[in-house]
């Protein structure tokens, strides 16, 4: 395929094959490849323009023609034998003007000595010296060698594209000619690029031939005797062998592969009980089973309406339902559940991160939690319904009291009046206009002495009701204060601070205190009565004077000979014995008045005690508190409450025992009064029986206050309640 | 140091000594947190709730005994060994010591979880009791794609799939499936194995969503344990029905992704082999089975006649087995084949499907039901019913063959109800549940005297439905009549009472003049409501605080339930109202 009549070109054409990049910078270090290194130098100056020679004959073909293809072509072409010679030395002289020095092709030698001298004789001078000249140098005869006409770029490109062998053409710049590499040459280049010897038949690893003749030498290189170690076995090797032997014997080194055991076997073959590690295993709760709403096709009522779904958005994140039911008309339309991996993951987290604890789940009827109480029918009679209303007061009725016979009832109100009503008819018999809000009213417990004690502001009034006509004389005597009592010798008396005087407006006595009096209580014999003044905490002195006991017959006053700890709320005389109860805000203190001894402290454990009542037997006390709790104390049992009844949502204002019936009641600011059955047995081993009986409604709330007082009728199982709505009600059975 | 020496500040007893926090535990065991987590998952150690949280509320507490239990675990040493080994390999590789690295790679330490399973489940029944999560997880992973990034390897997915199918094959072979429910989340199955109810969820066979924020490491750790557990459980179950485990499957069917069918075939083949006292290898048998004509529904029937089986089976299993007995099903292309194949064979039916490896063709004349899930069916055989897949599930849950009319192709399906709900306890019974109950009752009474013909059965059921409807209308009428009667009676009584009260009122008025009429009225009629409250209040008064709180909590939950039922009822009313207006 060689074209003999080809012009030389100034340029070395680079390979246009895919291997171009590798060929562009070959590393040639061996002397044997000098010719190529020259060619390589040329390629560096490949900026100059291409010149088209007589490339018209060049066959058209693709630039990218494969090397193997060329090989085949070469194989077919007998002229390839010519190409065995060095391509660089091949040139065409046909175009040379005046130069006839065509050289013979040297066969089969690539050594530098064999190389034919170049046609150009300029030697190793820089080529740019001839850049502007017409010639490129001189031939051996000293004639100028003319430069060839250059093809312009387009033409050269066309020529290259037309010529299938263009990729193996290079330009020899010194000779200014184009050289086509033969197949063998390209092979050589290829091998060199791979770092191999250029010729395939060269063996780089030929066995070494020692050309030095040892045998005939007179003197050996070394005359040392053979060392001992060459004759005895190595100790270290022996040691290593022993080590291996031991390892093999021990089974540390195995030569045969381990047998494939079946992965699974009967793990629970012997069902022997194995004990755990002592801690109770708490199995994880099973995931919740799906309900109807999780069906792919639930009934229509399980699907929330659009409004409900939008309402979910307004809910708190925690309250929002996790799953919103959806309906699919057929199984094929059900999509993959997007949270299935997520939910399984959450379950995994629950399994190993959630603390587990055994919780007792009670599966009982909630009604069975209620205590078994005797039926209320058996505990009759007790007040159930409102039969009478006593109307007349203008302000809230704070205190009521029945007279010992049960015919009359006295009531004190914040409108400054005290009224006496006839119980059975509801008629108001008497009205005292006192001018100041009344705090407390109390009848004298003696039936023959119809006297009323009233606490009002800083005064305690003892007034004659005038109901008993026969005893008027004695009452008048009793209620007369003749002379101001002389200064007493008794240290307990407090005559100086309390003054007894005749009450001018109505028939009675006025006992002036130094503080406002909240409650007045009579002794059972009707001669003594106590008054309570809640003193200021800062004035410690008044602790001794906050509870006073008055003696009506002698018009004497004495203080309680004990120090009180806390603010007194109310006081109470024991119904049979000379025992006195004082309730402070925190607890109830019990004193013996005869022995002048402190007996007991009853601790209610409530926030603030508001009222106290003593069972007619005297061993049981109930205490009402401002947090709505009612405490029943059994005095013989303990100083702690026997039972605490949380009945009212609001403050308890008063508690009361019935004198004959086993009843007690509590009234509260929530406008209700509770009636309880409170049976105290004479047998000391039996605990009192407490049964809630009835809730009495009827009063209205005024300024946040409801029922202010409740009292039982002394004989009948009737209950009077006084309300903040200025009405007194009578509840009968 | 004396033995009783206790460092200052260390507690000897009480919560402070008994419980330690997680970080303390990790420090105590000298492991990394991830190893601790793996250990906890494998050993089944969970945090506990101490009464008094010494270190504060935001910590998780482990019992000291649990931690000691972990400390003495051989697996812990194994984990340490593996860590050391990894270090060795890394070092060898980084030092370019190729020989050593290769030698080390052949000696990689491995561990097994066998003894842990034995330890956690000392008896087989314990393992069954705790199988729910295991099955759900394995079934989920059987449908997941293998993701290299998350270290979910394809072989594990294959293993999961194999295990789940083996389990299903056992369940369907022994007819232990009790309930099945198609939910939005997937299909729930409940089986009863050795008296234990095992419930699991299989996701719908679709591409699953893989969230990014899930730690797949944890799930894979769980899966590792579950795979081992299910393997042992399956082995035990297979041995109990005298099958070899792991089963050797027909490669042809396996290639067609009809694994479950291959497994059932395997089981059947083995069974027949036992019957013939043939002691050939399983492989040979499977091959033999393969050579047999595929179109042989009688194969399953052979099993039913197995006498030994009958003795062991309880009433329910027998009922389950005979539900679809002598019924032949054909599954359409669009139907979830695997689940239906499982369910129908579990209830004694014979199934084929459209596609390769099917035992018989669509044109087979024995087919009773063809299950299709498409809007319309063009070509129909007259001899069979074309039904939607829900019918199978509803039949299973009702344990009767429901009339097929409502489940025909293209029909709007009746609601699919959950079999896991106790409607009476819930307080609300959906309408369709009542219908099913009526059908069940009818089936129990009517079918007994009748000879058990297949075709008759079907017609019977349809007749029964009609009868049920007639009955229902009758019952309704009767109820209405009764109500009317009751109303009349009530009126009469009220009148009587009014008369009586009138008498009393007049007498009362005579006695008590002050009493106002208004008061009386309030006492009589509207006050009755507060009085009911009073009763509860009164009993509350005498309760202790603890009991009162409990009572209140119970009432609260009751009310919540009631509210739920009420919303359902109102929704239903609204729907009915809408229907009426639209029909009008």
From TrEMBL, chain A:
<dbReference type="GO" id="GO:0070545">
    <property type="term" value="C:PeBoW complex"/>
</dbReference>
<keyword id="KW-0698">rRNA processing</keyword>
<feature type="domain" description="BOP1 N-terminal">
    <location>
        <begin position="130"/>
        <end position="383"/>
    </location>
</feature>
<feature type="compositionally biased region" description="Acidic residues">
    <location>
        <begin position="60"/>
        <end position="74"/>
    </location>
</feature>
<dbReference type="InterPro" id="IPR019775">
    <property type="entry name" value="WD40_repeat_CS"/>
</dbReference>
<keyword id="KW-0690">Ribosome biogenesis</keyword>
<dbReference type="InterPro" id="IPR036322">
    <property type="entry name" value="WD40_repeat_dom_sf"/>
</dbReference>
<dbReference type="InterPro" id="IPR012953">
    <property type="entry name" value="BOP1_N_dom"/>
</dbReference>
<dbReference type="InterPro" id="IPR001680">
    <property type="entry name" value="WD40_rpt"/>
</dbReference>
<feature type="repeat" description="WD">
    <location>
        <begin position="390"/>
        <end position="431"/>
    </location>
</feature>
<dbReference type="Pfam" id="PF00400">
    <property type="entry name" value="WD40"/>
</dbReference>
<dbReference type="GO" id="GO:0030687">
    <property type="term" value="C:preribosome, large subunit precursor"/>
</dbReference>
<comment type="similarity">
    <text>Belongs to the WD repeat BOP1/ERB1 family.</text>
</comment>
<dbReference type="InterPro" id="IPR015943">
    <property type="entry name" value="WD40/YVTN_repeat-like_dom_sf"/>
</dbReference>
<dbReference type="GO" id="GO:0000466">
    <property type="term" value="P:maturation of 5.8S rRNA from tricistronic rRNA transcript (SSU-rRNA, 5.8S rRNA, LSU-rRNA)"/>
</dbReference>
<keyword id="KW-0539">Nucleus</keyword>
<dbReference type="GO" id="GO:0043021">
    <property type="term" value="F:ribonucleoprotein complex binding"/>
</dbReference>
<dbReference type="GO" id="GO:0005654">
    <property type="term" value="C:nucleoplasm"/>
</dbReference>
<comment type="function">
    <text>Required for maturation of ribosomal RNAs and formation of the large ribosomal subunit.</text>
</comment>
<protein>
    <recommendedName>
        <fullName>Ribosome biogenesis protein BOP1 homolog</fullName>
    </recommendedName>
</protein>
<feature type="compositionally biased region" description="Acidic residues">
    <location>
        <begin position="31"/>
        <end position="40"/>
    </location>
</feature>
<dbReference type="Pfam" id="PF08145">
    <property type="entry name" value="BOP1NT"/>
</dbReference>
UniProtKB/TrEMBL annotation, chain B:
<feature type="compositionally biased region" description="Basic and acidic residues">
    <location>
        <begin position="562"/>
        <end position="573"/>
    </location>
</feature>
<keyword id="KW-0690">Ribosome biogenesis</keyword>
<dbReference type="InterPro" id="IPR001357">
    <property type="entry name" value="BRCT_dom"/>
</dbReference>
<dbReference type="GO" id="GO:0000466">
    <property type="term" value="P:maturation of 5.8S rRNA from tricistronic rRNA transcript (SSU-rRNA, 5.8S rRNA, LSU-rRNA)"/>
</dbReference>
<feature type="region of interest" description="Disordered">
    <location>
        <begin position="557"/>
        <end position="584"/>
    </location>
</feature>
<feature type="region of interest" description="Disordered">
    <location>
        <begin position="514"/>
        <end position="541"/>
    </location>
</feature>
<dbReference type="InterPro" id="IPR036420">
    <property type="entry name" value="BRCT_dom_sf"/>
</dbReference>
<dbReference type="Pfam" id="PF16589">
    <property type="entry name" value="BRCT_2"/>
</dbReference>
<dbReference type="GO" id="GO:0030687">
    <property type="term" value="C:preribosome, large subunit precursor"/>
</dbReference>
<comment type="similarity">
    <text>Belongs to the pescadillo family.</text>
</comment>
<feature type="domain" description="BRCT">
    <location>
        <begin position="319"/>
        <end position="409"/>
    </location>
</feature>
<feature type="compositionally biased region" description="Basic residues">
    <location>
        <begin position="574"/>
        <end position="584"/>
    </location>
</feature>
<dbReference type="GO" id="GO:0070545">
    <property type="term" value="C:PeBoW complex"/>
</dbReference>
<dbReference type="Pfam" id="PF06732">
    <property type="entry name" value="Pescadillo_N"/>
</dbReference>
<dbReference type="GO" id="GO:0000463">
    <property type="term" value="P:maturation of LSU-rRNA from tricistronic rRNA transcript (SSU-rRNA, 5.8S rRNA, LSU-rRNA)"/>
</dbReference>
<keyword id="KW-0539">Nucleus</keyword>
<dbReference type="GO" id="GO:0003723">
    <property type="term" value="F:RNA binding"/>
</dbReference>
<protein>
    <recommendedName>
        <fullName>Pescadillo homolog</fullName>
    </recommendedName>
</protein>
<dbReference type="GO" id="GO:0005654">
    <property type="term" value="C:nucleoplasm"/>
</dbReference>
<comment type="function">
    <text>Required for maturation of ribosomal RNAs and formation of the large ribosomal subunit.</text>
</comment>
<dbReference type="GO" id="GO:0043021">
    <property type="term" value="F:ribonucleoprotein complex binding"/>
</dbReference>
<dbReference type="InterPro" id="IPR010613">
    <property type="entry name" value="PES"/>
</dbReference>
């Amino acid at each position: 395929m060689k074209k003999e009549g080809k012009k030389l070109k100034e340029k070395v054409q680079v390979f246009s094959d895919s291997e171009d990049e590798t060929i562009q910078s070959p590393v040639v270090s061996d002397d044997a490849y000098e010719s190529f290194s020259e060619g390589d130098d040329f390629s560096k100056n490949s900026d100059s323009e291409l010149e088209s020679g007589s490339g018209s004959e060049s066959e058209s073909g693709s630039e990218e023609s494969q090397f193997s293809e060329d090989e085949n072509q070469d194989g077919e072409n007998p002229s390839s034998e010519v190409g065995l010679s060095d391509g660089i030395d091949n040139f065409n002289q046909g175009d040379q003007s005046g130069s006839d020095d065509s050289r013979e092709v040297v066969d089969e030698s690539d050594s530098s000595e064999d190389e034919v001298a170049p046609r150009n004789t300029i030697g190793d001078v820089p080529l740019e010296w001839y850049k502007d000249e017409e010639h490129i140098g001189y031939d051996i005869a000293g004639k100028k060698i003319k430069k060839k006409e250059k093809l312009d770029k387009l033409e050269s490109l066309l020529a290259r594209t037309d010529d299938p062998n263009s990729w193996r053409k290079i330009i020899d710049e010194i000779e200014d000619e184009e050289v086509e590499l033969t197949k063998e040459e390209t092979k050589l280049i290829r091998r060199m690029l791979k770092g191999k010897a250029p010729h395939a038949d060269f063996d780089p690893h030929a066995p070494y031939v020692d050309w030095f003749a040892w045998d005939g030498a007179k003197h050996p290189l070394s005359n040392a005797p053979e060392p001992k170690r060459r004759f005895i076995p190595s100790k270290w090797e022996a040691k290593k062998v022993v080590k291996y032997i031991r390892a093999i014997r021990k089974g540390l080194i195995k030569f045969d592969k381990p047998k494939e055991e079946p992965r699974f076997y009967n793990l629970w073959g012997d069902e022997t009980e194995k004990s755990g590690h002592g801690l109770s295993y708490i199995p994880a709760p099973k995931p919740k089973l799906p309900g109807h709403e999780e069906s792919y096709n639930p009934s229509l009522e399980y699907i929330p309406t659009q409004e409900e779904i939008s309402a979910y958005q307004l809910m708190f994140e925690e309250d929002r339902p996790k799953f919103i039911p959806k309906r699919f008309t057929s199984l094929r339309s059900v999509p993959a559940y997007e949270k299935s991996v997520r939910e399984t993951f959450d379950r995994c987290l629950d399994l190993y991160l959630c603390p587990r604890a055994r919780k007792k789940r009670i599966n009982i009827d909630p009604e069975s939690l209620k205590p078994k109480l005797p039926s209320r029918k058996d505990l009759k009679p007790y007040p159930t319904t409102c039969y009478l209303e006593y109307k007349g007061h203008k302000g809230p009725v704070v205190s009521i009291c029945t007279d010992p016979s049960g015919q009359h009832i006295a009531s004190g109100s914040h409108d400054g009046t005290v009224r006496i009503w006839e119980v059975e008819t509801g008629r108001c018999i008497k009205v005292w206009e006192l001018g100041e809000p009344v705090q407390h009213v109390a009848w004298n417990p003696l039936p023959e002495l119809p006297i009323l004690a009233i606490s009002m502001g800083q005064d305690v009034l003892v007034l004659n009701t005038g109901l008993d006509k026969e005893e008027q004389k004695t009452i008048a005597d009793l209620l007369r204060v003749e002379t101001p009592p002389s200064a007493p010798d008794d240290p307990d008396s407090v005559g100086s601070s309390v003054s007894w005087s005749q009450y001018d407006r109505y028939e009675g006595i006025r006992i002036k205190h130094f503080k406002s009096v909240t409650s007045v209580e009579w002794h059972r014999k009707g001669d003594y009565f106590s008054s309570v003044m809640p003193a200021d905490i800062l004035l410690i002195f008044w602790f001794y004077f906050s509870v006073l006991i008055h003696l009506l017959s002698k018009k004497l006053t004495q203080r309680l000979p004990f120090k009180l700890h806390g603010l007194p709320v109310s006081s109470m005389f024991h119904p049979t014995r000379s025992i006195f109860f004082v309730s402070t805000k925190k607890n109830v203190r019990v004193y013996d008045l005869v022995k002048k001894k402190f007996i007991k402290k009853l601790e209610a454990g409530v926030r603030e005690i508001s009222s106290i009542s003593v069972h007619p037997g005297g061993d049981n006390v109930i205490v009402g508190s401002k947090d709505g709790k009612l405490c029943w104390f059994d005095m013989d049992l303990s100083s702690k409450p026997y039972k605490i009844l949380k009945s009212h949502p609001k403050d308890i204002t008063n508690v009361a025992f019935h004198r004959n019936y086993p009843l007690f009641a509590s009234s509260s600011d929530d406008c209700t009064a509770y009636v309880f059955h409170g049976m105290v047995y004479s047998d000391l081993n039996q605990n009192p029986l407490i049964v809630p009986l009835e809730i009495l409604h009827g009063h209205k709330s005024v300024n946040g206050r409801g029922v202010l007082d409740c009292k039982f009728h002394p004989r009948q199982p009737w209950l009077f309640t006084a309300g903040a709505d200025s009405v007194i009600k009578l509840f009968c059975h | 140091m004396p033995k009783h020496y206790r460092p200052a500040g260390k507690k000897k007893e009480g919560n402070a000594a008994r419980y330690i926090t997680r970080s303390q535990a990790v420090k105590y065991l000298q492991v990394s947190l991830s190893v601790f987590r793996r250990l906890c998952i494998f050993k089944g150690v969970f945090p506990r709730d101490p009464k008094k949280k010494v270190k504060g509320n935001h910590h998780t507490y482990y019992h000291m005994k649990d931690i000691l239990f972990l400390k003495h675990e051989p697996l812990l040493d194994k984990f340490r060994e593996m860590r050391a080994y990894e270090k060795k390999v890394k070092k060898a590789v980084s030092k370019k010591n190729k020989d050593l690295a290769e030698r080390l790679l052949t000696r990689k330490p491995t561990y097994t979880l066998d003894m842990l399973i034995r330890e956690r489940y000392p008896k087989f029944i314990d393992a069954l009791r705790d199988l729910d999560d295991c099955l759900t997880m394995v079934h989920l992973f059987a449908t997941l794609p293998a993701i290299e990034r998350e270290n979910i390897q394809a072989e594990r997915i294959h293993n999961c799939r194999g295990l789940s199918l083996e389990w299903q094959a056992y369940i369907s072979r022994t007819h232990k499936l009790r309930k099945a429910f198609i939910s939005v989340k997937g299909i729930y199955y409940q089986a009863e194995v050795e008296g234990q109810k095992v419930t699991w969820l299989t996701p719908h066979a679709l591409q699953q969503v893989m969230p990014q924020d899930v730690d797949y490491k944890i799930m894979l750790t769980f899966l590792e344990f579950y795979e081992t557990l299910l393997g042992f459980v399956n082995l035990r179950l297979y041995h109990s029905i005298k099958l070899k485990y792991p089963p050797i499957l027909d490669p042809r069917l396996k290639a067609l992704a009809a694994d479950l069918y291959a497994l059932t075939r395997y089981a059947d083949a083995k069974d027949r082999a036992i019957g013939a006292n043939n002691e050939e290898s399983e492989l040979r048998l499977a091959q033999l089975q393969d050579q047999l004509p595929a179109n042989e529904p009688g194969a399953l029937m052979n099993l039913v006649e197995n006498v030994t089986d009958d003795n062991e089976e309880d009433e329910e299993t027998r009922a389950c087995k005979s539900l679809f007995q002598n019924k032949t099903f054909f599954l359409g292309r669009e139907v979830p084949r695997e689940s239906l194949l499982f369910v129908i064979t579990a209830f004694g039916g014979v199934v084929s499907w459209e596609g390769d490896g099917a035992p018989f063709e669509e044109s087979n004349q024995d087919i009773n039901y063809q299950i299709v899930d498409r809007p319309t069916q063009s070509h129909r055989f007259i001899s069979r019913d074309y039904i939607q897949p829900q019918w199978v599930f509803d039949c299973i849950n009702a344990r009767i063959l429901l009339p097929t009319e409502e489940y025909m192709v293209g029909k709007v399906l009746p609601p699919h109800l959950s079999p896991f709900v106790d409607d009476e306890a819930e307080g609300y019974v959906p309408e369709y549940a009542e219908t099913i109950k009526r059908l069940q009752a009818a089936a129990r009474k009517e079918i007994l005297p009748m000879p058990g013909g297949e075709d008759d059965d079907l017609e019977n059921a349809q007749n029964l439905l009609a009868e049920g409807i007639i009955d229902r209308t009758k019952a309704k009428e009767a109820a209405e009549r009764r109500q009317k009667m009751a109303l009349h009676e009530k009126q009469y009584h009220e009148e009587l009472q009014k008369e009586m009260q009138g008498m009393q009122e007049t007498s009362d008025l005579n006695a008590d003049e002050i009493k106002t009429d208004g008061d009386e009225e309030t006492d009589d009629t509207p006050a009755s409501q507060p009085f009911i409250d009073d009763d509860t209040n009164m009993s509350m008064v005498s309760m202790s605080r603890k009991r009162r709180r409990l009572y209140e909590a119970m009432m609260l939950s009751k009310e919540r339930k009631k509210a739920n039922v009420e919303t359902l009822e109102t929704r239903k009313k609204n729907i009915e109202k809408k229907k009426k207006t639209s029909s009008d």
